[in-house]
Amino acid sequence: MKILVTGMNGQLARSLAARAQGGGIELVLAGRPELDLENPLTFAPILKSVAPHMVINAAAHTGVDQQEDEPQRAFRINAEAPAELARLTRLAAIPIIQVSTDYVFDGKSSEPYVESDGPNPQTVYGRSKLAGEQAVRSENPDHLAVRTAWVFSRYGRNFVKTILSAAQKRKRLQVVVDQFGNPTEAHDLADGLLAAARFWRDHQGFPQGLYHLAGQGRASWYEVARQVLEVSKAMGGPIAEVEPIVSDQWVAKALRPANSELNSERFANDFGYSAGDWPDRVSCVVGNLIKDSVIGQDTQEADRVSVAPQFSKPTDEAV
Ligand SMILES: NC(=O)c1ccc[n+]([C@@H]2O[C@H](COP(=O)([O-])OP(=O)(O)OC[C@H]3O[C@@H](n4cnc5c(N)ncnc54)[C@H](OP(=O)(O)O)[C@@H]3O)[C@@H](O)[C@H]2O)c1
Description:
Elements: E1 2-6, H1 11-19, E2 26-30, H2 43-50, E3 54-57, H3 64-69, H4 71-91, E4 96-101, H5 124-139, E5 143-148, E6 151-152, H6 159-169, E7 172-176, E8 180-181, E9 184-185, H7 186-203, E10 210-212, E11 219-220, H8 221-234, E12 241-245, H9 265-271, H10 278-291
The structure holds NADP nicotinamide-adenine-dinucleotide phosphate (NAP).
NADP nicotinamide-adenine-dinucleotide phosphate binds near residues 9 and 311.
């Protein structure tokens, strides 16, 4: 089975590439400029030349604060492009998996969100990703929309790497303590999507269209930062104190949900896959980054928190 994956340099695409080896799935990764979500004219030629059996759209505009200033671009990349990709996959009679986000919710629930909960996005990012889900659903019935959250990995830009990088430069960090979610290791997300792809291969369809898939366990950004720094200290990596602050003390353009915990039971029931516990996964990623001496690579955001990625929560004083 051949799968075309967009966003080839992103955390998810790189994790899919790492995990798909063997197992009868061939991945073809594509990225800019050959496949540019802002240029729909690039879609058909790549679909024609690769001739995949499935598309996974792992590309997105993920700069949450940046998008508040460029909503049209956000909608082009996160909504209109998935719509066109879905339309082309329907014409080619193949399925598409669209990856979406916990930010479709307003974060006011005290319970983990299930798929039937009503979305109410509070940011341009959340609105554009919700529009992307809806467009994919209407353009290609043979689709899956998988919402995930707080993605981290050894690749690219993410909160875990930001904390490590910041701890190399500062002795004291401040991190938000009153926002909660499910930290998700990108390889776990990749494994889940590959399980869904294999399900489609074996059954020629998906059971349902909308799923949540996130790491096990609830955490605040503060708890994640503490875990990162504890493991780092134990492994001889960067050390810093971490001080809890509330959201009001952290100025950002986009409003983050207070609680975006996702219930991933439907995914586990239908595809037989659950992501790992977040503390284990954070420990593993931090341990590997320190062992491989790659802290600070791919983490430009640590010096530019005004354009921090969506899930970097430290204050601009702290990181
Ligand atoms: N990261 C999270 O915490 C998180 C949380 C919830 C949901 N998600 C969703 O999960 C999916 C994967 O996220 P991720 O963490 O892997 O994101 P990521 O590391 O930020 O990667 C996104 C990729 O999209 C590519 N991209 C951006 N604009 C593009 C365009 N116009 N044309 C083609 N490619 C473009 C980027 O390319 P360049 O490398 O060239 O910039 C990058 O490779 C996305 O749908 C995201 O919305 C992520």
